Amino acid sequence: MTTAVAAPFRFFSLQVVRTRRLGPSLVRVTFSGADLHAFHSDGRDQSLSLFLPHPGQAEPVVPLELGDGWWQGWRELPDGIRAVMRSYTLRALRRDPDEIDIDFALHTPAGPASRWASRAAAGDRVLLLGPAVADNRAIRFRPPEGTDLVVLWGDETAVPAATAILESLPAGTRARAWLEVPHAGDLQDVATEADAEITWLVRHDGSPMAVDAVRAAQLPAAERPYVWIAGESGRVKELRRHFVGERGIDRRRVTFVGYWRRGMTEEQLRAAE
């Protein structure tokens, strides 16, 4: 069942096709659905809202029958019944057959989404609130015309978007990226035609983290750099201050997105916004 939401977004009823463990902290889940032909996105950091069932439920409970009133109806459902909602980014979209990949960061202690992803199996059902229009407001990576250097930083929650961005960059694009993950086993091969230098930072191996690693680096000379930073909101704010305050990059050329906040659930984070 699908229903229209505020265009250009709509609900898609999906089921798991397969899963693939990418490392100790990452699992890729591939989904299909009868309506995925209507899913469109040109963004490499396309944001999505995923609704997951509680243990014992066959599918997530979202009152789609209420039409535009679904949000209020969903919020009024009891905690143990109401579908778990979490924000993710699209890792890949394929046609023939229509499939999407979403990469999940696994952590301890596991939250409801991490727990669901670690146990996901073919046939499991979810609901996705995603784009029906390729260019939409939930895409944040938008380098201005004339950009001559792309700079990226992301932790494990942003690695799916960051690697998708790197893979999409045109041949010859100069790029510098720092990707932070918990374990060495989480490192991935990134197939990109860009002139990209990618540094993996492994927390459990004692690598310098976030601001320290970036601050110590010498960036290639550029007149029109563009910076994209995503992950834990405290780190993201620190890095934004570094690029704007210490490196003097025009704040209008710095995109920053807090995907999560240390010590807070997504429900608490939404309530605080």
TrEMBL record:
A Pfam family matched in the record: SIP
Record-annotated FAD-binding FR-type domain positions: 9-144
Matches recorded under SUPFAM superfamilies: Riboflavin synthase domain-like
InterPro entries found in the cross-reference section: FAD-bd_FR_type, FNR_nucleotide-bd, Riboflavin_synthase-like_b-brl, SIP_FAD-bd, SIP_fam, SIP_rossman_dom
A single MF term (Gene Ontology): oxidoreductase activity
Family matches, as PROSITE patterns: FAD_FR
UniProt-listed PANTHER family: FERRIC REDUCTASE, NADPH-DEPENDENT, NADPH-DEPENDENT FERRIC-CHELATE REDUCTASE
UniProt protein name: Sialic acid transporter
Native species: Streptomyces cellostaticus
